[in-house]
C-alpha cells in the first residue's frame, strides 16, 4: 500500500538503520493499513512481523529436528530450537505489553531476542568447520 509522505519518511528513517533496507520497507508497506501510521503503528507492524517470523522459524526447527539423525547437527538444532523459543516468547510478551501501551515493558521483554537468535546463527559459523545452517532456506 502507498504510504502518505509522513509515514514514508518514518519508514525510511527506520529502514535506513537496517541491513536490508528494501526488505524492511517492503514489509512495512505490505502490512500498512490505510496508508498512514505513526511510530506506534509501525512498532506494532514490526512486532507482529518479528513474532510471525520467530514462530515460523521455531516450527521449522522442530520439523528439522524430527528428520535429522546426525548428532552434531541435532545438537546444533536443539540450540536453535531453544533460541527461537526464547525469541518467540519474548516477542509474544512484548506484544502483550505493547497492546497495554507499556512500551518500556515491551522493550524489556524483547531485549533478550537478538542475543538468543545470535546463539543459533553463531553455532553454524564457529570452528571446527562451519556447518551449513539449515535455517537459511
Furnish the topology, listing elements before pairings:
Layout: H1 5-15, H2 21-31, H3 39-67, H4 71-99, H5 103-110, H6 113-123
Helix pairs in contact: 1-2, 3-4, 4-5, 4-6
State the separation between the terminal residues, measured CA to CA: 27 Å
What would you call the shape?
elongated
Q: Portion of residues in helices?
A: over 70%
Task: Average the pLDDT over all residues and give the rounded result.
Answer: 92
If you compute it from the alpha carbons, what radius of gyration comes out, rounded to the nearest whole angstrom? 17 Å
Portion in strands: under 5%
Number of domains: 2
Largest sheet: none
Number of strands: 0
Question: Any low-confidence stretches, pLDDT <50, length ≥5?
Answer: none
Number of helices: 6
Structural class: mainly alpha
* H/E series: HHHHHH
What does this entry show, briefly?
This protein has 137 residues and is mainly alpha-helical. Helix content is 72%, strand content 0%.
